[in-house]
Each structure stands twice: as C-alpha cells, then as structure tokens.
Amino acid sequence: MSETIDRYAGAPMVRFLDAYVLDAIGALDDATRDTMDRNVSRIRQALQVEGDTWQEVVETAMAMPDDAADGVRTSWEMFVDECFRAGQTPDALAWSHALVDARFRS
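Above: the chain's sequence. Below: its structure in token form.
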C-alpha cells in the first residue's frame, strides 16, 4: 500500500494515467472505474480541460492523439505475446506502471 501512496505523492496525474492505461487494456478494477466515472466533473475541474468521459479528459490534458487507447492496447498485446513466448505470465499493473513511467514521467 505504501508503494502506491509513494507512487502518487506529488504526482496526481500519474493516478489518472495509470487508470487510463489499465482501462485501455481492460484491466481496471470495477471500483476504480466506477469512482472515475462518478467524478468526471471533478476531474475536468482539476485538470482544467473538457471531455465527456474521464478518459477523454485525461487524453486532452496530456495532448494524446485520438488513437492513444488503441496504441496502448496494441503495445499490451505485443507484451502479452512476448511474455507467453518466454513462458512468463504478463502483469498488467507492473506493465502499466512501466509504460506510464517511460512515457509521461521525467
């Protein structure tokens, strides 16, 4: 639990990005998805951008291309294939954290 708290300390956008990536690959838990869905207006306000869904708000805030979620899914599918070929089990959470860290964190 403290690892998660440490991950988001001073980096609130990382929480939204982690959720976005997990949602794009179908691995976002129901409780988080429901919370994000219920708080679209608060997320819009916090990020100061428009969007009909929390996913659109995150995409707009980060100036992502329209096909960003598709790109995430494609990358995930390639990773899963690589894991299976290597006899490993893919870890969606670890992969999503690595992707967010590599693309969005400095």
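Residues 68-85 form the longest helix (18 residues).
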